[in-house]
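Thanks for the sequence, V.! I ran Circularly permuted type 2 ATP-grasp protein right away. Repeating your input here for the record:
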Amino acid sequence: MYSSQHFEKYNLINGVWDEMYNENHIVRDHYQKVIEYLARESAEDLNKKEELAKRLFMSQGITFTVYNSGEGIEKIFPFDIIPRIITADEWAFVERGIKQRLTALNLFLKDIYHNQFIVKDGIVPIDIVYSCPHFLREMYQLDVPYDIYVHIAGIDLIRDHDGTFYVLEDNLRTPSGVSYMLENREITKRLFPDLLPNCSVRSVTEYPAILYKNLMALSPRQISNPTIVLLSPGIYNSAYFEHTTLARLMGVELVEGRDLVVNNHKVYMKTTTGLQQVDVIYRRVDDEFLDPLVFNPQSVLGVAGLMGAYRKGNVAIVNAIGNGVADDKATYIYVPEMIRYYLNEEPILKNVPTHRLGNADEREHVFANINKMVVKKTNESGGYGMLMGHAASEEEIDKYKQEILKDPRSFIAQPTISLSAAPCYIGGVLQPRRIDLRPYALCGPDGIEIVPGGLTRVALTEGSLVVNSSQGGGSKDTWVLNNS
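Predicted structure:
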């Protein structure tokens, strides 16, 4: 172990991969410069940096909203000042794996909304597809530009006890969190201005430029300056800070449903000088609220007639409508088979072993071993609707089992993965806390680009495995190093 007052309480967690220390309690090479820097800093200096980070988050309004008991409570996003560091080789492996996975998922979405060969060949069961609430028949035989359905993906990765990367979730609808990745880096530049260049940390700031370039390329009108808008549900949405940030960084209009109108199967934005035709919509509104004429008739967040304009090819929508069938947790089980089927390759990134509770045998196995399982609803996100078997009481387990039996198709179970740990500055000392990683991939006509980094989420509570901000988690900057 490193000798410094900051490291006195850093006790490795048994059976957990530690990002900073190896199994012999020696600092890994890629953490060496950061640890040497921290060892030279006094507790007072680090406390000042932590306080500065909080003030910067507060002054810049970097918040998210938690909904408890029907009330929206706006909170500052908890930030840990110690970066999570990934080597160039580790990143190259992750990047290859994500590109492979997204290529297969895009092919699956095109197939499932057209010829459905993967169903006919018995690779993915038809009942999994048709029972998914996010499989939208309105998308059947609808061609999307360049056959790209997933333009933006936030693939959640975790590491098991031996350091192996696993994909936990494919977020292919309206993935969030990228603004925190960008803001975390800006805050870190303020806290450690010399450390980033000294460690040869790769930049993440190109994300808005790459996204904007891809959005421009999707315009159905061949004009030099197409109109791009970011469609937000509005100020009460939990990710509204992100919507404003991305619109500002890309230089596009931030709009709500009431700002748009459809006329003659074309979408227009209301402006002070009249109607302006919209070519590309980066939407942060869920499918069911996009068009009240087709989906939820009560929705005031979308635009009446939008689906008709989309079907006519007069507007591009990012991400494509109907992507939820590919990131349903019951479909997730079949992604390795999709990779083999469409690409004739072995998956680079592993899935977490997953049990379908709609299958009676698997359900019986899960019920018998539920103390070692994490049980999730197939269409929930944000850590909601989840049972952590190892931490639940008998009463909670019995209640949850009853819920499962009402609708087994809507649940999956996975063995409890230990999640790797990284150093966090808590209470004036470094302590290990569990983390995951959400890299952001952008798919455009020129291929898939992944900014080197992502959002590392942290379970700030000691012993916790839940990293979601809505469940008390935080985040830290993610450094991907250049080859030295």
